[in-house]
Amino acid sequence: MVDRRISRIALAGALVFALACSMSAVFEKPELEFRGIRIGSIGLGGASVDVVVDVYNPNSYRLGLDRFTYDLTIENVRFGVGEIEAPVSVDGRSTTTVRLPLDLDWSRLGDVGRRVLDRGSVEYGVSGELTIATGFGRRRVPYAKTGRLSVLGKGDRQ
Known about the structure:
Elements: H1 2-25, E1 31-42, E2 46-57, E3 63-74, E4 77-84, E5 88-90, E6 94-105, H2 110-119, E7 121-134, E8 137-150
Antiparallel strand pairs: 1-2, 2-6, 3-4, 3-5, 3-7, 7-8
């Protein structure tokens, strides 16, 4: 009788482990699309902005973004880093817009400002890491996105 219980427990444990492994294999990383930068407030020393990104969940199940770190560069100049820990849900095969707050210092805008005036756009890079809650546990997913941003606010050009 004890041997049967142990066998059943072992079998149930093996099935749960196999299911978790197979579900883990079907996890697809979310895709990010840079939408632009929105100015919140402007002061003498700088500005408060939101880096706006769309997060697409290619999975059939909901993902919870527990933590979102980010590092913004413009024309290869590091403008700032930040993180949000407010949970954001992204339904399966859906897109959610996320605003990432960032404080900019005017002293960093000199060269970038001239490039904007010359070309009408700038190259950007956004990178960081997402901490994602799934039904199968938490995952840390690095990301990096580069492209060209029009000063007219039309977003990513690549």
